[in-house]
Structure to design on (245 residues):
């Protein structure tokens, strides 16, 4: 058998395995930032993280964060760090609201993920029930989806960040809320996410997982976390779902 033939057969097997994974799903849980859109495409997450750190420093709370946390490019890391030191406090509530407001501002410049909109519409049309399970604010998700004419395909099943920040993914809390809300069996539910924490949450909830990676770096992170199925474009998923129609 030539190497070209072996490679072709491997691709065929991977395609069939992916098709089986997708067609098995009766319920689909989407992460928001990544699989549906790039929320911070024009309003960078790194800038938001810096502004949260500066806000804390302006209140004389620089010492709440370690140096690595202050240098973080991830606003959720900053939020989690403060919550670990002052869980359930007014400070955490105010910081979370500041992040929500930044996310809301970001929706106006968010970039839709290629093929996400038609995939959502097609999956709903073939009878699958959809939900959002995200670390972003549910207010932000609704605002973005409403602007795309998609909110009715998910509502009321939009499960996002609460002020119980220890329940952010990789904790499966928002996935379990989605499963309960949909009345869905984990074995017939597929989670689409783009981070290691998405995969870990899916594993903990017992649902199937499909990784979306828009570049090789993100694919490596997902593969290293243990994700077996990863696609670089949602077009691949859309083709399979259309075949179900």
């Amino acid at each position: 058998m030539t190497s070209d033939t072996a490679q072709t057969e491997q691709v065929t097997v991977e395609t069939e395995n992916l098709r089986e994974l997708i067609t098995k799903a009766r319920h689909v849980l989407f992460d928001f930032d990544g699989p549906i859109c790039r929320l911070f495409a024009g309003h960078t997450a790194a800038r938001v993280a810096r502004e949260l750190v500066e806000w804390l420093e302006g209140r004389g709370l620089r010492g709440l964060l370690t140096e690595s946390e202050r240098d973080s490019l991830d606003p959720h890391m900053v939020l989690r760090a403060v919550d670990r030191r002052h869980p359930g406090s007014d400070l955490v509530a105010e910081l979370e609201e500041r992040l929500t407001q930044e996310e809301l501002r970001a929706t106006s410049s968010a970039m839709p993920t290629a093929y996400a909109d038609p995939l959502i519409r097609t999956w709903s049309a073939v009878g699958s029930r959809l939900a959002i399970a995200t670390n972003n604010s549910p207010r932000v998700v609704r605002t973005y989806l409403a602007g795309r004419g998609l909110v009715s395909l998910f509502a009321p099943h939009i499960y996002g960040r609460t002020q119980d920040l220890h329940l952010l993914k990789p904790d499966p809390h928002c996935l379990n809320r989605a499963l309960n809300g949909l009345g869905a069996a984990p074995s017939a539910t597929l989670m689409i996410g783009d981070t290691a924490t998405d995969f870990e949450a899916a594993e903990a909830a017992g649902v199937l997982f499909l990784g979306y990676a828009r570049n090789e770096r993100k694919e490596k992170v997902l593969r290293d976390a243990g994700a077996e199925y990863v696609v670089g474009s949602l077009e691949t998923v859309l083709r399979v779902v259309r075949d179900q129609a």
